[in-house]
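Budget justification aside, the reviewers requested a transparent look at the raw inputs and outputs of the sequence design task funded under Objective 1. We therefore reproduce one unedited record. The lines immediately below are the structure tokens for a 180-residue chain.
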């Protein structure tokens, strides 16, 4: 275990087994579609997206969107910024929106609204983690890997100040790292 991690919340093997289950659901739900547009949110979803999509044998296209809501700390800023100049053309398409974690709900709500406004026929949302808390925006993920308590987590794509994204598990940081 990394020395900055106080505890491993979800081990690598547990994540892998859960991905098999989610992938089977996604496959079954979209099996009748000619094509599926995946939109994954950077940077946090990059590990989850790569591991999940390799388990989904559908004809799909992948786009990544850069959105920012944290700006360096451990609390959402409350504002969702789209950092890309050009967004993918989703007009008339079925979209699977992938994010790392559902926290306040602002990110998924804002991006789902944007994709619908851009003409997406259907938007389904998929997150690795759902925080058990009251959300600022009423939003539920269609597919969710794990429910966790309301604590700040890192690893498996999630960062603190740009670090720890490469850890193969989801863990809780030692409090001294956040306060220092
Ligand atoms: P909202 O609040 O919009 O948050 O649902 C979504 C984005 O906030 C980031 N986030 C976290 N990042 N550990 C992180 O490393 C966390 O515990 C955490 N909670 C929220 C994340 O980027 C997510 O996409």
């Amino acid at each position: 275990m990394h020395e900055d991690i106080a505890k491993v919340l979800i081990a690598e093997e547990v994540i892998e087994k859960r991905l098999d289950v989610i992938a089977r659901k996604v496959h079954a739900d979209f099996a009748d579609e000619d094509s599926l547009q995946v939109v994954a949110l950077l940077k946090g979803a990059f590990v989850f997206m790569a591991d999940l999509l390799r388990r989904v044998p559908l004809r799909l296209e992948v786009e990544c969107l850069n959105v920012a809501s944290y700006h360096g700390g451990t609390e959402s800023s409350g504002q969702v910024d789209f950092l890309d100049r050009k967004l993918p053309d989703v007009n008339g398409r079925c979209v699977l929106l992938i994010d790392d974690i559902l926290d306040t709900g602002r990110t998924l709500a804002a991006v789902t609204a944007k994709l619908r406004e851009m003409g997406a026929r259907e938007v389904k949302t998929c997150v690795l983690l759902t925080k058990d808390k009251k959300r600022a925006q009423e939003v539920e993920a269609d597919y969710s890997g794990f429910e966790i308590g309301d604590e700040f987590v890192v690893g498996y794509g999630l960062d603190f100040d740009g670090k720890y994204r490469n850890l193969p598990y989801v863990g809780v940081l030692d409090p001294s790292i956040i306060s220092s």
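The two ends are 20 Å apart (CA to CA). The first strand starts at residue 5 and ends at 10. Computational costs for records of this kind are itemized in the attached budget.
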